[in-house]
Amino acid sequence: MEHKAVQDMLKSKFTNYNELRRMKELPEYTGTALYQQLLCLIEACGPTPSEIDKSLRTKIDYPEEFFSAKDLDFLAAEGVVRHFLGLMMSETNPLSTLLDERTCAAWSIIPVINHLIYAYLSYVDVKWIEPTHHQTNRTKWDGIICTKNTDDIVCLMEFAGGNTPKDEMNHKKQNNDELKLYNGISRLSKQIDTCSPQFRIFVIRTIGSKAYFESVSIKCGVLIRTRHFVLEWPKNASELHEFTKQLPKLMSFRLALFEAIESFSKITKEA
């Protein structure tokens, strides 16, 4: 939906175009005072990993116990930041070296997603590295997030290359992975009511040091993709500053994902 030609086509085909436009938006995430403190501390820190680490260890006002969902949101955001900070403070940051597809994912998108879903493991399953699923004809995926009770897919993930120059220039594989994702979504969409305004499947694709966070809906046989944002994995303190500015988008994506889990279960029951 990013291109004007696509927008014009959708306007001519759908009377509820504004509803489609709203699907591009993610729910706003503000977070708690603790979460805001995390962002502000990193922004105010000097450009070295050790300064950021010291600031997070000594200046965050941690409560004695974490209870609310908002507290768990903070722990998810902090976990993501500390993961990359830990890599920067190691003798050799693997993200600064040439990595193949799965090794790159193991140091980036996999720990990020794991941190985001820790608080929701009672409701979702996440499966990594060639899991299959009955809704997509046993196709092998790099990652799947599905509802625990109903076993419905809510997010598909594909690693489309490592961070080597060869991988990053392999446009054929990248296109094939996109086609694989959309074919999979088309298959599973036939099993539920895709005309429901709640129907949306989330997609995460990684290519080297970048991750593309998207969602896909199907209206009247038309597959509509929305790219919400792109993240680039930080390899030094300066890049971590920029990455932290994108954390609200990542947390909004997380919120949208788990809002969809609840509505997706309702769609499945009604289908």
How would you describe this protein?
The radius of gyration is 19 Å and the shape is globular. The chain has helices spanning 4-13, 17-23, 33-44, 49-59, 69-89, 101-106, 109-117, 165-168, 171-189, 237-245, 247-270; strands spanning 124-128, 143-147, 153-159, 201-207, 210-219, 222-232. The longest helix is centred in the C-terminal third of the chain and has 24 residues, at 247-270. Mean pLDDT is 85; it is low at 267-271. 49% of the residues lie in helices and 17% in strands.
Q: What topology emerges from the helices and strands here?
A:
Layout: H1 4-13, H2 17-23, H3 33-44, H4 49-59, H5 69-89, H6 101-106, H7 109-117, E1 124-128, E2 143-147, E3 153-159, H8 165-168, H9 171-189, E4 201-207, E5 210-219, E6 222-232, H10 237-245, H11 247-270
Parallel strand pairs: 3-4
Antiparallel strand pairs: 1-2, 2-3, 4-5, 5-6
N-to-C series of helices and strands: HHHHHHHEEEHHEEEHH
**For the CA atoms, what is the radius of gyration?**
19 Å
Strand fraction band?
15-25%
Distance between the amino and carboxyl termini: 27 Å
Q: Catalogue the unreliable spans.
A: 267-271
Strand order of the largest sheet: 1-2-3-4-5-6
Count of β-strands: 6
Mean pLDDT: 85
Structural class: alpha+beta
- Per DSSP, the total helix count is 11
> Helical residue percent?
40-55%
Task: Indicate the overall shape.
Answer: globular
Major sheet characteristics: 6 strands, mixed
